[in-house]
Amino acid sequence: MLERFHVPKDKAIFIKPKEILKTVTSIFSKTGLPDQDSLQAAEVLIYADSRGIDSHGVSNMLRSYVDSFNKGNLNNNPKWKIKKEFGAVCTIDGDGGLGSVVGPHGMREAIKRAKEFGIGSVTVMNSGHFGAAAYYADQAVKSNMIGLATTGGGVGMAPTFSSEKLLGLNPIAVGAPTKVNPPFIFDASTSSVAGNKIELARRLGVKVLPGWISDKDGVPIMEEVNIPEYDNPKDKPMVLPFGGTRELGSHKGYSFSVIAEILCGGLGNNGLGPFRRDMTAHHFTAYNI
After folding, report:
1. How far apart are CA 250 and CA 257, in angstroms?
2. Which of 78, 98, 112, 232 has the most beta carbons within 10 angstroms of its beta carbon?
């Protein structure tokens, strides 16, 4: 992660993974999550922190999840179920649960089908934020499969030449096992910067780089600036597709984001971008090699 996003060492608190896992699991249990779901949600957060993805780790996401549970925006005991299936593919209704609780079931189902058909492809709809996409690609890797995971992130991206937020900051992760070397795991937002890093930069009081955000008219800001103050998360500045400007290839980031919208909201029949109906959707594919 870029140095500007690191918490200063004189302010950082270092905790052993096993200890923070126990604490976070306990916090999730207090929200009413069953024990196994609490552990699963905690594991996704600690996975991100242990790999330097602070934007999707405990310090940046836990309070948001707890707040959503307390406000009744997330189901703390989701009964996910398969709505449609056809051989290697299926669609799962997440029953309004936290994505890091329901999402792992989606990839496990994809892995299960890949063992039978050679490939398994699962879309999960009606679910909350699922954390770091790499976690799910790594699930497949641990089963000696190639894994792909994507999700409909928060609708905060202004497409190339747009003056409105119309697309999610949709990450795409791919993982591939290896024989000797560490596995290949790629996880990146289709936007110029992950939306959670905007919140992290605001919390740390650091500037964002040129080509990351636009002004209110959708014009890319091509200089380092402080993030404008906002109280409502919906008032976050518009994030640009990766590339930043058309001249630097922002149409590519824009198009990759649309692909993720199609795989998640399209296949899940949940709507795309600002037209999503039931929370958000995720997509998982496992390739049996």
Report:
1. 11
2. 98
Q: How far apart are CA 221 and CA 214, in angstroms?
A: 5
Distance between CA 279 and CA 180 in Å, rounded?
41
Global model pTM greater than 0.85: yes
Comparing CA positions, the residue from 85, 132, 121, 129 lying closest to residue 280 is 129
Measured CA to CA, the distance from residue 239 to residue 223 in angstroms comes to 14
**Domains annotated on the chain, with CATH:** 14-70 (1.10.1530.10), 80-130 (no CATH), 146-279 (3.30.1370.60)
Say what the pLDDT of residue 172 is: 97
pLDDT digits (tens, 9 = 90+) for 111-140: 999 999 999 999 999 999 999 999 999 999
Q: What is the mean pLDDT of residues 170-175?
A: 97
What is the residue type of 62? L
**CA separation for the pair 116, 191 (Å, rounded):** 35
What is the rounded CA–CA span in Å between residue 130 and residue 288? 24
Element (H, E) at 118: none
| DSSP letter assigned to residue 191 | B
Tokens at 140, concatenated: 């497949």
> What tokens were used for 179?
């024989």
Residues 57-73: pLDDT tens digits?
998 899 999 999 999 99
